[in-house]
Amino acid sequence: MPEETPVAIQFNSKPYAVMMATPADLEDFAVGFALAEGIISRASDIRGVLALPTDDGIAADIAVDEARLNQDRMVRRSLEGRTGCGLCGVEDIGDAIRMPGARVPDVDFQAEAIARAFAALPGRQPINAVNRSVHAAAWCSVDGSIQLVREDVGRHNALDKLIGAMARGGINPRSGFVAMSSRCSFELVQKCALAGIGALATVSAPTALALTLARIAHLKLAARAPRGVMIFDKD
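RESULT FIELD:
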């Protein structure tokens, strides 16, 4: 059975949110969460991450110079972030939908490469091979070769982990695209956009809001289709 553990995200030892997540790659998760939530602008703003077990779960404490924190995003969530939802605890509708001011980079995004990534993804999911219950987010080169994979019971957590791993590894988001085993909801689009990722492929089609936000950011979207891969017009 997959584990689902409370992970307390802290900034400079101050509580920010509690997310329900798979307890793996938590340093990646913390860094990716900070970037994808717009709390910091770049991974280099982080001085260190410490993940420690607590009586009730795990605390991931992110050390950041106070001047580097986006204070507009530092309002604490009042509820835990449940596994299936990236918005639990957000108190204001205006905080739910947020997009970067600049366009994301233009990325070569071809149906053949996307299909190649989808075909290879199940074989790159060691946790899912055991429990058949977790999502995956993969970083792929423009030819569809999978370079990096992170897994979690929550699709948005898996993406946060991937974004964090990419940032910690110095991977250029212009060099490829993200492929995910989930549907494409709007929070995945905004996380990619805020992280500077220019293309996202998901197994299921995007929601109307996800497609609208992707067009605003000029982020390319694709999904599996009955006869291959469908790429959605970003314009």
